[in-house]
Amino acid sequence: MKPVELKKDIFWVGAIDWAVRDFHGYETPRGTTYNNYLIMDEEVTLIDTVKYDFSDITINHIKSLVDPEKIKHVVINHIENDHATSLDKIMAVAPNATIHITGRGKKGLDKFFDTSKWKMNLVKTGDTLKIGKNTLLFLETPMIHWPDSMMTFCQEAGVLFSQDGFGQHLASSARFDDEFSTIVSADVLDDAVIDYYANILMPFGQLILEKIADLQKLGINPEIIAPDHGIIWRAKPQKVIESYLEMANGKADLRAIIVYDTMWKSTEMMSVPISEGIMSEGVDCRILKLRATPMNVVIKEFWKARGTLFGTPTLNNIMYPSMAECLTHLRGLRPKNRLAGAFGSYGWGGGAVKEAYEIFEKMGLEKFEPGLQVIYKPSSEDEEKCYQFGKAFALRLKEYQARF
Ligand code: FEO
User: Fold this and answer.
1) Where are the domains of the chain?
2) Which atom belonging to ligand 1 lies closest to the Cα atom of 163?
3) CA angle (15 as vertex; 41, 102 as ends), nearest 5
4) Do domains 4-248 and 256-401 have the same CATH topology?
């Protein structure tokens, strides 16, 4: 793929990673892209780099537009490996460039490279850099999602280089939202935004609200939002901002998710009458078996729904290991305003359901209590209890949803 012009003299010079399926543990069935951008102004400026393996691709893209020695500025919005590990290769061909980065970014970069050999300029929110016709305005966005993170706004062109923010893991021949919606679908794009937010940005909702307010205070009203992953927003940049505002405010659908694992199918057998009880109250329900579903999909579906029931057998008096893994992921993501309950089968002493509620308590989730346990295999009487458990959960969920 060649460089793609997103606004006059501003080019995408990134790389498409069609093959990646495991992005630091995050399953990426559609691959991803590492986006970086070249501004061909009087002082040529590169915004971000790419993952190391794709260094030659971006360097060749740059060379097709300009001699890299003419690059005067390199802006590093985020130092995570997928965006900054090719920096030394870039600086080898662009030795005249000054790197613009936050103070925390520089500290982090020092752990990866000997930065003493490069010209470095530390920037903070509100600082600007005139590069010719265009002016770059920097906005620190610490913990969205690393301490070093920032965004860069090209004022005259109206382009916001938003690093991971507003990104998605999608490899495609389309570079823009309108193209992707035609080639694939707008729904797939919307879903990829939610998937990315749920798995990467869920803990930072309050900060996201504050930073979107800062964008407005600084007069940043982007015509184009150019993230470091996936599709560039040029047709509907406001749409993705609104979507972030909704998610940061804890938007969830009136739906119940049943996430379960099972040893000898008893817990699985419980999930069916529970789902029937939920649906009897007119509440949508989806069942996800943990070992059959990628973790990022479980996290996304949990995030989209207002309530989740976790089904876990007891193994050695504690939760089933896959459920412990799932709740560890969710605990780290610090979800808010979600209703949770637990059920499961046990043979001897039990313990898994109790442990699940202890974790809900630590996570600050709204608890639907008591949980439901059956011994060994559910009897027809147990199945009726499961049905009633699901029904009661749905009633509580409707009540809870009305609070938002
Ligand atoms: Fe795409 Fe936080 O790196």
Assistant:
1) 4-248, 256-401
2) 1
3) 60
4) no
Cβ–ligand 1 contact at 169 (below 6 Å): no
C-alpha 245/C-alpha 224 separation (Å) is 18
List the beta bridge partners of residue 22: 27
**211 burial class (0-12, 13-18, 19+ CB within 10 angstroms)?**
buried
Please give the pLDDT value at position 289.
Answer: 98
Answer whether 310's CB lies under 8 Å from 256's CB.
Answer: no
**Cα of 16 to ligand 1 centre, how many Å?**
15
Say if ligand 1 is within 6 A of residue 17 CB: no
404-to-254, 264, 279, 309 alpha-carbon distances in Å: 11, 39, 21, 20
Q: Is 82 in the pocket of ligand 1 (CB under 6 A)?
A: yes
Tell me, in angstroms, the distance from the centre of ligand 1 to residue 47's CA: 14
Q: Which atom of ligand 1 is nearest the CA belonging to 167?
A: 1
Question: Whose alpha carbon is nearest atom 1 of ligand 1?
Answer: 164
Ligand 1 pocket member 229 (CB < 6 A): yes
Burial class (CB in 10 A: 0-12, 13-18, 19+), 268: middle
- Ligand 1 atom 3, closest CA: 80
Position 247, amino acid: M
Q: What CATH architecture does domain 4-248 belong to?
A: 4-Layer Sandwich (3.60)
The residue type at 300: K
* Top CATH class, 256-401: alpha beta
Contact indicator for 57, 68 with CB cutoff of 8 Å: no
Q: Are 258 and 311 in contact (CB under 8 A)?
A: yes
Query: Which phi and psi angles does 137 have, rounded to 5°?
Result: -115, 130
Burial of 286 (0-12, 13-18, 19+ CB in 10 A): middle
Question: What pTM, to 2 d.p., does this model score?
Answer: 0.94
Active site residues: 24, 78, 80, 82, 145, 164, 196, 229
* Rg of the chain on CA atoms, in Å: 24
Ligand 1 centroid to Cα of residue 193, in Å, is 14
Averaged in consecutive runs of 10 residues, what is the pLDDT profile of the chain (404 residues)?
96 98 92 98 98 97 98 98 97 98 97 97 97 97 94 97 97 97 96 96 95 91 97 96 95 97 97 98 98 96 98 96 97 96 94 97 98 97 98 98 95
User: Residue 159's closest CA among 134, 179, 180, 183?
Assistant: 134
